[in-house]
Amino acid sequence: MSAVYKNMNETSNTINVLVTGSGSVYGLGIMRSLKESVLPVEIIAIDSNPYSLGLFFAAKSFICPQAADEESYYMFIKNLCINHQIKAIFIGSTAELPFYSRNRESLEKSTGAKVFVNSPEVIELCTDKWLTMCYLQRSGFQIPASIRYPEDDGMLSSFIEDTGFPLIVKPRFGRGSVGVVLVKDNQQLLENINGKKGLIIQEYLTDEDQEFTVGICINQKGKVISKIALRRYLLEGVTIAAVSDDYHHIADYCAMVASTLGAYGAINIQLRLKDCMPVIFEINPRFSSSTCMRSLFGINEPENLIRSEVLCQEVIPGSPATGLVLRQYMDYYFPLDKLNSLSKENLH
User: Fold this and answer.
1) The ATP-grasp domain covers which part of the protein (predicted)?
2) Helix (H, G, I), strand (E, B) or coil at 233
């Protein structure tokens, strides 16, 4: 059953939306979901790299300054939103999240566009994986046994004794699976921690076929407007296959986590089952690489956010269809004129 929408307002007028970081797997997932939507959406895509695929798929595309150049980037976004009557901003770049989080209120006030981004507090908490673990544990949610390195070096021997090998070593501050290592003995552990700082050593949750990615969307009022749990299979840290089945209890559990956290917009929770219970090892305060996969199961997160936040419709979460989605990367051909016109249009 797909979501139910109440207070249906007139939606025949085109809704202009901005997708940033349109070349990333997150940005492309947002764009594809918006294209699947029945809403009359026109996508304006931006990226700092002219070779970003999303720029070639949008109705209008612009090359933007780097978000690190905060003043120029802010003015660029503000003017773009005003000139193109943007109603909503979707962030497809992890690196841009802190900028939008800090400037959300100002941008919404000056442009009238809704900015779907979590608060600075939520982003800080989720970016620091140790803080994430501490928060979850304090809030009564299950986590893998974890220690910091080198801060908890004195506890390492007893931790190994209690937990056993294999163990996971990962950066305390990191993105996705970058820098995550599975170590199978003391020698491998020492090779991966010696002389390093800012690490977390963690219990390895053994059931690889019980790994889930869970998407929760929450509106401004704190109401869950969509939830979906998918059993996933990874290749180099990215979901390549996802199964939807009777996983409602996992989605409900993660909806509680997101609500407790005070999330807004999209939040993405990674977990494995241990003794049939969800054990969360990561929370990403953004759209997922499996956003488009979710829309194929009938859970269209970008559409639900537009309906709730822009059109002021009441969105009652639906249940995803059961099935399997496989991901295969494709190659696309474009004439050089397309690239040249894109570059010229945005150099002025």
Assistant:
1) 133-310
2) strand
3-class DSSP assignment, residue 284: strand
How far apart, in whole angstroms, are the C-alpha atoms of residue 254 and residue 267? 10
To the question of pTM greater than 0.90 for the whole model, the response is: yes
Least confident of 113-117, 160-164, 233-237: 233-237
Using one digit for the tens of pLDDT, what is the confidence trace for 23-72? Answer: 999 999 999 999 999 999 999 999 999 999 999 999 999 999 999 999 99
CB 261 within 8 A of CB 239: no
Give me the domains of the chain, ranges plus CATH numbers: 11-116 (3.40.50.20), 145-203 (3.30.1490.20)
Residue 236 reports pLDDT greater than 70: yes
Neighbour-count burial of 255, counting CB atoms closer than 10 A to its CB (0-12 exposed, 13-18 middle, 19+ buried)? buried
What is the residue whose two structure tokens read 């199978």?
184
| Paired tokens of 74 | 């802010």
Residue 209's pLDDT is: 81
Cα separation, 93 vs 96, whole angstroms: 5
For the record, the structure tokens of 48 come out as 């700092």
Structure tokens that stand for 271 in this block? 């977990």
**pLDDT tens-digit profile of 119-178?**
999 999 999 999 999 999 999 999 999 999 999 999 999 999 999 999 999 999 977 667
Please choose, from the candidates 210, 286, 332, 251, the residue with its C-alpha nearest in 3D space to the C-alpha of residue 29.
286
Q: Are 226 and 301 in contact (CB under 8 A)?
A: yes
The secondary structure of residue 308, as a DSSP letter, is I
The encoded tokens of residue 309 equal: 């936040």
Give the Cα separation of 130 and 327 in Å (integer): 31
Residue among 165, 265, 272 at smallest CA distance from 220: 265
The C-alpha atoms of residue 302 and residue 344 are separated, in whole angstroms, by: 31
CA 170 to chain centre: 19
